[in-house]
Amino acid sequence: MHQRVNAVVESMPPFPQSVMRLMEMTKDINCSPKDLVEVIEYDPVMTMKILKLVNSAFFALSRDIVSIQHALVYLGMNTVKNLAISIATIDALPQKSIPGLPMGSFLTHSLATAFVAQRLAKDCLHLKDVSDHFIAGLLHGFGKMVFIQLEPDRYAEVLEDVKAHGCSLAKAEAVHLGITYAEVGALLADSWQLPLSLVDCIRMHVACDADSSDMTITVAAANMVVTVMGLGANGDAEVEAFPTAIHQRLDVDMATVIDQMQALQSEVEQIQSMVGG
């Protein structure tokens, strides 16, 4: 199975170079808005989708935004970067899906997890730069897409096992396939040459503990919150409360986070319809 997984990972589309460039640029404190604009506007489809989104009711700006430069002024560099990364990543994702995990529902879950992880990093951990938490949340479950490309019927059986017995998806994958979506997602992220912190987060978010990174904690928590809220689908079983490591790090319980995220569903649906449209 591992050899076949590696073969599928290698056959997946490369991570968009424009996104890699954006991630590298915005980590530089001396990065200028002009440089960011040039990278985004080099891709006219991405530019069109960003402008469509920022002019939607979702952002409710008081004037029409006619350029990426104007979007940066009104929304800030990190917001525009995250929109660009979401658009490019979703466009690069294979569209094959199975009944137990439809692509649209999977993307809803991924986007919602990205939003919640970013929010937790900001509100609970008081971090200033939370954009990596958004990206990790967006990518945390992409290993499932490799399984769907590789063995859709067998993976559908894994999802049915989770549904029937209430066990965790990672546990069911380990039993049926010998490898988890988190491990496969880390292989995919590594093949995309993403930062090691993102690779480790994707691998470890299903088994975080007191030594886990802040990013791993926020993504694990966000994944649980979004699952319980029923936003999209990720094939996993619901949990009733945060594990001790998450609760202690974030100093908040799941019920409180869910209560604070009640507007999330409509926000995610709006972004998904425009990012994927």
Notes on the structure:
- It is a single chain.
- With 277 residues, the chain is mainly alpha-helical.
- Helix content is 68%, strand content 0%.
- It is built from 17 helices and no strands.
- The protein has helices spanning 2-11, 17-26, 33-41, 44-54, 68-75, 77-92, 103-123, 131-139, 143-150, 152-165, 169-177, 181-191, 196-204, 214-229, 244-250, 254-260, 264-275.
- The model has no long low-confidence stretch (mean pLDDT 87).
Kindly estimate the percentage of residues that lie in beta strands according to DSSP. under 5%
Average pLDDT, all residues: 87
Are there runs of 5+ residues with pLDDT below 50, and where?
none
Tell me the structural class. mainly alpha
H/E topology pattern: HHHHHHHHHHHHHHHHH
Briefly summarize what is shown.
This protein has 17 helices and no strands.
Present the secondary structure layout:
Elements: H1 2-11, H2 17-26, H3 33-41, H4 44-54, H5 68-75, H6 77-92, H7 103-123, H8 131-139, H9 143-150, H10 152-165, H11 169-177, H12 181-191, H13 196-204, H14 214-229, H15 244-250, H16 254-260, H17 264-275
Helix pairs in contact: 1-9, 1-12, 2-3, 2-6, 4-6, 5-6, 6-8, 7-8, 7-14, 7-17, 8-14, 9-10, 9-12, 10-11, 12-13, 13-14, 14-15
List the main descriptive attributes of the protein structure presented here.
17 helices; 277 residues; mainly alpha
